[in-house]
Amino acid sequence: MIGGLQIGVAAVVGLIFGLGLAVSGMMGPARVGGFLDVAGGWDQSLAFVLGGAVAVSAVGTLILRRRSRPVLDQSFDLPTKTRIDPPLVVGSAIFGIGWGLAGFCPDPAIASLVLGLLPTAAFVVAMLAGMALHDRAFASVAGGAGFPAGRQP
Questions:
Q1: 111-125 confidence digits (pLDDT tens)
Q2: How far is it, in rounded angstroms, from Cα 90 to Cα 104?
Q3: Residue range 78-103, pLDDT digits in tens
Q4: pTM of this prediction?
Q5: For 40, how many CA atoms within 13 A lie in the half-sphere containing its CB?
Q6: What is d(CA 22, CA 16) in angstroms, rounded to the nearest whole number?
Q7: 32 and 99 in contact (C-beta within 8 Å)?
Q8: Within 10 Å of residue 149's Cβ, how many Cβ atoms?
Q9: d(Cα 134, Cα 10) in Å, to the nearest integer?
Q10: Residue 60 and residue 43: Cα distance in Å, rounded?
Protein backbone atom coordinates (compact mmCIF):
# COMPACT_ATOMS: atom_id res chain seq x y z
CA MET A 1 0.00 0.00 0.00
CA ILE A 2 1.30 3.43 -0.94
CA GLY A 3 1.36 5.90 1.94
CA GLY A 4 1.67 9.66 2.13
CA LEU A 5 5.38 9.49 2.94
CA GLN A 6 6.04 7.35 -0.15
CA ILE A 7 4.17 9.83 -2.35
CA GLY A 8 6.03 12.76 -0.79
CA VAL A 9 9.44 11.14 -1.29
CA ALA A 10 8.52 10.21 -4.87
CA ALA A 11 7.47 13.83 -5.55
CA VAL A 12 10.73 15.21 -4.13
CA VAL A 13 12.81 12.72 -6.13
CA GLY A 14 10.83 13.58 -9.28
CA LEU A 15 11.41 17.29 -8.73
CA ILE A 16 15.16 16.72 -8.24
CA PHE A 17 15.26 14.60 -11.38
CA GLY A 18 13.38 17.24 -13.39
CA LEU A 19 15.69 19.96 -12.05
CA GLY A 20 18.69 17.85 -13.08
CA LEU A 21 17.25 17.50 -16.58
CA ALA A 22 16.71 21.24 -16.80
CA VAL A 23 20.15 22.18 -15.47
CA SER A 24 21.89 19.71 -17.79
CA GLY A 25 19.89 20.96 -20.79
CA MET A 26 18.47 17.51 -21.50
CA MET A 27 14.83 18.59 -21.81
CA GLY A 28 15.27 19.86 -25.36
CA PRO A 29 14.81 17.54 -28.34
CA ALA A 30 17.67 19.32 -30.16
CA ARG A 31 20.13 17.89 -27.61
CA VAL A 32 18.89 14.36 -28.33
CA GLY A 33 19.06 15.00 -32.08
CA GLY A 34 22.65 16.19 -31.74
CA PHE A 35 23.53 13.07 -29.74
CA LEU A 36 21.98 10.75 -32.33
CA ASP A 37 23.68 12.56 -35.25
CA VAL A 38 26.93 10.57 -35.04
CA ALA A 39 27.73 11.22 -38.72
CA GLY A 40 27.33 15.00 -38.41
CA GLY A 41 27.88 17.44 -35.57
CA TRP A 42 27.77 14.88 -32.79
CA ASP A 43 26.95 16.28 -29.33
CA GLN A 44 28.49 13.92 -26.79
CA SER A 45 27.06 15.72 -23.72
CA LEU A 46 24.16 13.26 -23.45
CA ALA A 47 26.66 10.41 -23.26
CA PHE A 48 28.12 12.00 -20.11
CA VAL A 49 24.65 12.42 -18.59
CA LEU A 50 23.83 8.79 -19.40
CA GLY A 51 27.16 7.69 -17.97
CA GLY A 52 26.46 9.60 -14.77
CA ALA A 53 23.04 7.95 -14.53
CA VAL A 54 24.61 4.51 -14.93
CA ALA A 55 27.13 5.30 -12.18
CA VAL A 56 24.41 6.45 -9.78
CA SER A 57 22.30 3.39 -10.63
CA ALA A 58 25.27 1.09 -10.03
CA VAL A 59 25.78 2.54 -6.55
CA GLY A 60 22.05 2.24 -5.87
CA THR A 61 22.09 -1.39 -7.00
CA LEU A 62 25.00 -2.17 -4.68
CA ILE A 63 23.10 -0.62 -1.78
CA LEU A 64 19.90 -2.44 -2.77
CA ARG A 65 21.63 -5.83 -2.74
CA ARG A 66 22.69 -5.30 0.88
CA ARG A 67 19.19 -4.51 2.13
CA SER A 68 16.46 -7.00 2.97
CA ARG A 69 13.68 -4.55 2.08
CA PRO A 70 13.20 -0.93 0.97
CA VAL A 71 12.92 1.83 3.57
CA LEU A 72 9.33 2.75 2.67
CA ASP A 73 7.86 -0.58 1.53
CA GLN A 74 7.63 -4.23 2.51
CA SER A 75 9.54 -5.69 -0.43
CA PHE A 76 11.48 -4.78 -3.56
CA ASP A 77 9.64 -4.94 -6.89
CA LEU A 78 12.42 -6.33 -9.05
CA PRO A 79 12.02 -7.93 -12.48
CA THR A 80 12.04 -11.71 -12.41
CA LYS A 81 12.77 -12.31 -16.10
CA THR A 82 16.34 -12.14 -17.31
CA ARG A 83 15.87 -13.52 -20.83
CA ILE A 84 15.91 -11.20 -23.86
CA ASP A 85 12.71 -12.04 -25.72
CA PRO A 86 10.83 -10.62 -28.74
CA PRO A 87 8.55 -8.28 -26.72
CA LEU A 88 11.62 -6.72 -25.09
CA VAL A 89 13.38 -6.26 -28.44
CA VAL A 90 10.28 -4.84 -30.15
CA GLY A 91 9.51 -2.54 -27.22
CA SER A 92 13.09 -1.30 -27.15
CA ALA A 93 13.00 -0.64 -30.90
CA ILE A 94 9.72 1.29 -30.60
CA PHE A 95 11.17 3.33 -27.74
CA GLY A 96 14.37 4.09 -29.68
CA ILE A 97 12.52 5.06 -32.85
CA GLY A 98 10.17 7.32 -30.89
CA TRP A 99 13.08 8.86 -29.01
CA GLY A 100 14.92 9.55 -32.25
CA LEU A 101 11.89 10.99 -34.05
CA ALA A 102 10.48 13.11 -31.24
CA GLY A 103 13.65 13.83 -29.27
CA PHE A 104 11.85 12.95 -26.04
CA CYS A 105 11.63 9.98 -23.76
CA PRO A 106 8.95 9.89 -21.03
CA ASP A 107 10.72 11.60 -18.12
CA PRO A 108 12.15 14.61 -19.99
CA ALA A 109 8.83 15.03 -21.81
CA ILE A 110 6.90 15.21 -18.55
CA ALA A 111 9.49 17.59 -17.07
CA SER A 112 9.26 19.73 -20.22
CA LEU A 113 5.51 20.22 -19.76
CA VAL A 114 6.32 23.14 -17.47
CA LEU A 115 7.63 25.00 -20.53
CA GLY A 116 4.10 25.08 -21.95
CA LEU A 117 5.11 24.13 -25.49
CA LEU A 118 2.43 22.56 -27.71
CA PRO A 119 4.72 19.92 -29.30
CA THR A 120 5.70 18.69 -25.83
CA ALA A 121 2.07 18.46 -24.74
CA ALA A 122 1.18 16.63 -27.97
CA PHE A 123 3.99 14.14 -27.35
CA VAL A 124 2.85 13.48 -23.76
CA VAL A 125 -0.77 13.00 -24.89
CA ALA A 126 0.36 10.56 -27.61
CA MET A 127 2.60 8.75 -25.11
CA LEU A 128 -0.23 8.37 -22.59
CA ALA A 129 -2.58 7.19 -25.36
CA GLY A 130 0.01 4.58 -26.39
CA MET A 131 0.33 3.40 -22.79
CA ALA A 132 -3.45 3.13 -22.46
CA LEU A 133 -3.65 1.25 -25.77
CA HIS A 134 -0.95 -1.16 -24.58
CA ASP A 135 -2.75 -1.75 -21.28
CA ARG A 136 -6.05 -2.36 -23.08
CA ALA A 137 -4.43 -4.75 -25.57
CA PHE A 138 -2.70 -6.82 -22.88
CA ALA A 139 -5.23 -6.53 -20.03
CA SER A 140 -6.81 -9.91 -20.73
CA VAL A 141 -3.42 -11.61 -21.17
CA ALA A 142 -2.07 -10.73 -17.72
CA GLY A 143 -5.24 -10.63 -15.67
CA GLY A 144 -5.69 -6.90 -16.07
CA ALA A 145 -2.16 -5.89 -15.12
CA GLY A 146 -1.37 -4.40 -18.53
CA PHE A 147 1.65 -6.60 -19.20
CA PRO A 148 1.99 -9.69 -21.38
CA ALA A 149 1.89 -12.92 -19.36
CA GLY A 150 5.09 -13.40 -17.38
CA ARG A 151 6.25 -9.80 -17.92
CA GLN A 152 4.92 -8.15 -14.77
CA PRO A 153 7.54 -5.93 -13.16
A1: 888 888 888 899 899
A2: 18
A3: 888 889 999 889 889 988 888 888 88
A4: 0.66
A5: 6
A6: 10
A7: yes
A8: 10
A9: 25
A10: 28
